[in-house]
Amino acid sequence: MPFVTVPELKAQLNLDHDLDDALLSHQIDAAEAHVASFIGAPLTDPLPAAIRQAVLMLAAYWYETRETAQAGGAPFAVPFGVHDILQPHRVWVV
Question: Which of 16, 38, 42, 59 is the most buried (most CB within 10 A)?
């Protein structure tokens, strides 16, 4: 079960249609998997606000930037700030 909902992501993106709900759901799943992998721990319920924000930012970015190459600028796999937000939640293994 996703921790972030499609309506939350639609609000983040300011979308008012249902045409891309399946794609948005996929972006949420991928973003949650990336965040869990980056912090080194499974996501928990309730999701901390900072982690929720990182998932929303990442899913929205991947929805808006669907290609690996982009004209006029360097493409990024993860938008600026996502890893900074997640850094305090990382589990460090030594």
Answer: 59
